[in-house]
Amino acid sequence: MEATLKNRLLCLGMNAPDELKEGRKWGAGPAGGRYVLVHDSVTNVPIFGFAEDSPIHLLERDDKHYVSDGGEETKVDLLDNPRFYDASTSDGVRMWMIALAHGNRCLGSTVYQRCVRWELGDQCQFCGIELSLKHGTTMEVKKPHHLAEVAEAAEGEGFNHITLTTGTANLKDKGSRMLSSATRAVKDNTKMRVHVQIEPVSKEEIKSMHSAGADSIGIHIESLDRKALERVCPGKAGDYDVYFEAWENALDIFGPNQVSSYIILGLGEDRNETLAGIDRMCEAGVIPFVVPLRPLDETPLQDLIPPRPEVMEEFYLHACDSMRDHGVDPAKNLAGCVRCGGCSALMDYYR
Ligand code: SF4
Fold it and tell me: How many domains in the chain?
């Protein structure tokens, strides 16, 4: 039941009254959502755009909240902004400009808020990384000492892991040096587990992020259908096979169950090619972090809608079976998106 409801919420969104609508509208990764706990499972539920027509409604009664789906009501907890959102760093920067709460245990920060692919004009068509900068809701570069202060404040409120992602800073280290400095600063000042996300880089660069203290890594191929990748991620498409090499190197360094990749569904991908690609990933030991497309305003894919829940369910169940068949255990992943689970029902189907 839990997995089904979460799957429906991530695909259909929820129709929320204006007074309960808040959340980051742009940025790296699946923005545009409100964090709720559904049976203790963090869910980053879409509330803008297509979600305004969702058949699932968010209700408030006697200071309690429910989602009503087809007449069935389920009690949920809306996650409020953490206290550190009202605080500033020692040099006066608002902490929410540095990192945001991704649920109630995971912190998220885009260390470098630009991407060379936006300059080159071959950016991923679903990506909103530079839009939050354009709208003044974040900073271009998150300095290590700022991240250390925010992570320390957040740790005091129960956050125990962090996702550090980056736009591709250049075509050499792709931002891995910035990620290493950020990781080291968080590790030197907190007990948090650290997840880093980056495009494929050399084994040396992967090693440097691990030596800085990173516990898990995401190298996101986005789609396992080559044609869909060419269409939607023109800058990344040429590297299809490079991803498998980078994952292999990352597994050597980070160890089993610590390497994952987003697989975004709803990009017009071929079903069979995607299922076969998921098997190939699991065979290699990589966690296929299956997520429904999150169409963001002001991006080329803003008018698309996510796949239907029943379509997503087939991919979740297939990924879970394939992970079990190949001895991949996402429950052992130490930090970041797989552990957080806010944008995917994968772990809810796996449990
Ligand atoms: S899965 Fe969690 S950490 Fe990852 S982008 Fe979604 S909310 Fe953030």
Answer: 1
pLDDT above 70 for 1: no
Rounded Cα gap, residues 342 and 324, in angstroms: 22
CB 254 within 8 A of CB 217: yes
Helix then strand count (H, E) for the chain reads 12, 12
C-beta neighbour count of 17 within 10 angstroms:
10
Which helix (H) or strand (E) element contains residue 337? helix 337-340
Cα 104 vs. chain centroid, distance in angstroms? 14
| Candidate from 41, 43, 163, 334 with most ligand 1 atoms within 8 A of CB, to mutate | 163
Pairing of strands 72-78, 106-110: unpaired
pLDDT at residue 34 greater than cutoff 80: yes
The domain of 96 spans 2-350
Question: 274-303, pLDDT tens digit by residue?
Answer: 999 999 999 999 999 999 999 999 999 999
* 122-168 pLDDT tens trace: 999 999 999 999 999 999 999 999 999 999 999 999 999 999 999 99
* Pick from 7, 56, 45: nearest CA to 317: 7
Rounded Cα distance between 244 and 251, Å, is 11
Q: Which amino acid is at 296?
A: L
* CATH number for position 111: 3.20.20.70
Q: From the CB of 104, is ligand 1 less than 6 Å away?
A: no
